[in-house]
Amino acid sequence: MTRSEQDLFSEAAITSFKLNGQFLAIAEELARPAGITAAWWQVLGAVLREPLPVAGIARAMGITRQSVQRIADLLVDKGLAEYRPNPAHRRAKLVAVTDAGYEAVRRIDPQHAEVSAKLAAELGLEQFAQIVESLTRLSAALEAIEVR
């Protein structure tokens, strides 16, 4: 039996929803000992390499600007992030990680590495890399067709 395009789309969506739930549950477990939530970790992770405006974080993470703003405000209140001036846009401040934010993320690293190794062992490194590549291509394709 061949599956139709619509069936494939539905299966991909349902599997993605399940994966999202699984990843969020794991992320919550990993983040908890560091005193942060999965959502906080997600926003901190988006700005580890360079500060970004809230809208840039939202685009990179595929979540709403309002959600990111709320989390960024909490992170700033907790001293895990700070707002910096944005030379490209006076009103859209940049979100940057503080030393305390880097330390929180570093506390996650050992368990993160352990879970990553277990998953790589379960799948095999080559297949794991192929899955990541396929998910990245799927995300890009969805972005390209931009259904509104």
UniProtKB/TrEMBL annotation:
SUPFAM superfamilies: Winged helix' DNA-binding domain (SSF46785). InterPro entries: HTH_MarR-typ, MarR/SlyA-like, WH-like_DNA-bd_sf, WH_DNA-bd_sf. It comes from the Bacteria. SMART domains: HTH_MARR. PROSITE patterns: HTH_MARR_2. Residues 5-140 form the HTH marR-type domain. This is MarR family transcriptional regulator. It comes from Nocardia acididurans. The lineage of its organism: Bacteria, Bacillati, Actinomycetota, Actinomycetes, Mycobacteriales.
